[in-house]
Amino acid sequence: MAGGTESLVVGVAAVAMAVGALQIAARRRAAQGRWLLAAGALVCLLGMVAATVHWGEDAFLSTVTAAAGMLTFAAFWSVALVPPMPRAQAGYGLLAAGAVAGYLMAPRYLTATAVLHDVSYGLSAWAYVAGAGVLVAGLAHTPLSDGSSEDVAANPHLSLATLCLTVSLAAQGAATQWAWGSYWVGDPAEYLRLLGWIGVALGWVVAAEFGRHRRAVAWSLRAAAGVVIVVLLGSMALIQALGLPSLYLAG
Fold first, then answer.
1. I want to staple 70 with a disulfide (CB 3.0 to 4.6 A). Which of 132, 147, 197, 202 is the partner?
2. pTM to 2 decimals?
3. Helix 5-26 vs helix 30-55: angle between axes, to the nearest 10 degrees?
């Protein structure tokens, strides 16, 4: 795909997500709605990834792109992983469709020239987005009140998020090795992304070791989601605001 084709594909997929979410909310043809929601989310993600490759877009530098990708992943995971209540699926679908609409109207943000054409850097960003999305989807399973064992299903979400962020850090290391000759250059962006991985990994350990304590599991997922979302949406803005030197911002 090239030119405006990505935008057309993403736009049509966003409409499919919205239609699917509305069908789920109305409880009419809910099964078809879930299929539409999942398929629309997948196609939408493929279109955004294609745009990343075509335009040299950086999901870490663009809050709109990162938010749209995260919510679209959340909409997909809400169907694919331990499905929550239909209202949560419908909510994720409508939020994702709205975020994608904002993404289509936003300007493009390019990566630093040193890593612009490195596929592993794009993989690093999108793996991080995927991890954030699965954590957002998992929030629908973490009530604070004690309930049945079905109330908390954080383990699958934390496990998959840990895997996604591990892939992200590995791809980031490959990108820095290609661009600057070192797997770790001590960049502030690298430390912040590592902080997100640590937060998710600790949440996964808590969920695994204290699975019977539903409040502990719920709060571990909430904390992990909060850390990852802040890193994904705010780390580069924080680095810029503090005036910290970062190779990822070098022109």
1. 132
2. 0.89
3. 160
